[in-house]
Amino acid sequence: MNADAVARRGRLQARRAATGSMREGAAKAGLVARGVIYVLVGVLAMRIAFGGSRHQADRTGALQEISSKPFGAVLLWALGAGVVGMAVWRLSEALFGAAGQDGGKASKRLLSAGRCAFYVFVAYSVLSFAAGSGGGGSSDDQSKDVTAKALQWPGGQWIVGAAGIAAAVAGVWIGVRAVLRKYHKHLKLGEMSRRTRQLVDISGVAGGVARGLVFAAAGAFAVRAAVDYEPDKAKGMDDTLRSFSETPMGPWLLACVAVGLVLFGLFSFALARWRKV
Q1: Nearest Cα to Cα of residue 92 among 82, 102, 104, 81
Q2: pLDDT at res. 98
Q3: Mean pLDDT score, 14-41
Q4: Predicted structure pTM score
Q5: I want to staple 231 with a disulfide (CB 3.0 to 4.6 A). Which of 38, 95, 147, 245 is the partner?
Q6: How confident is the model at residue 31 (pLDDT cuts 50, 70, 90)?
Q7: Is 216 a residue whose pLDDT tops 70?
């Protein structure tokens, strides 16, 4: 009996180790893929700020940039596989709980499930683009189309308005958590040097604030579209970023946000190396 119990315990530990390795590999691949997309979006936004580029500063624009490079098709498929890894990681968190003492809470699992659904959509978009079907068009067109359809539903204005408020609140939440360095609890701080921690904090705080600002602005535009009953006032990432250059600060605000998005991409690379999974 003791020998059987030891054998079962050994098999269980081996299975957990294998599952943990798969989860860690999926998380690393997903975080690297997310980092690549944000770095490219930030670079495209910088070009818009000072060069008046017509390229879209969103996921579609990033994919177009990749496809124009040597071995672009291979890189696109690799990026799509990475995003699939992100979706798998978030699904595993929804099913089995995330790392940390409170990772098994229902609220945490629900949040992971929502993130999984989002990255499933992103993965579909990237892989569709890699397959040559266009990936669903620009974020601006998608936002306007979805808003127009939602406004036609019973209570559509309330639905779009609520979604916009949720996006705006999420943006503020993302920015505040970045400033408070809430991501520290997910990092293997003991494996990082002091200099590395400083660099990660710079990218984590600045990147999180920039990302939160984009979410908050997009949410505000959605609320405006709902109030005015005009779906064209809803904006995707590209139009949202371009709107920053229309402020009194001109292109400098867009440039700051662009740098922040690049830093968030670099922060994602750091997470791929030091995040607890």
Answers
A1: 104
A2: 77
A3: 81
A4: 0.86
A5: 147
A6: very high
A7: yes
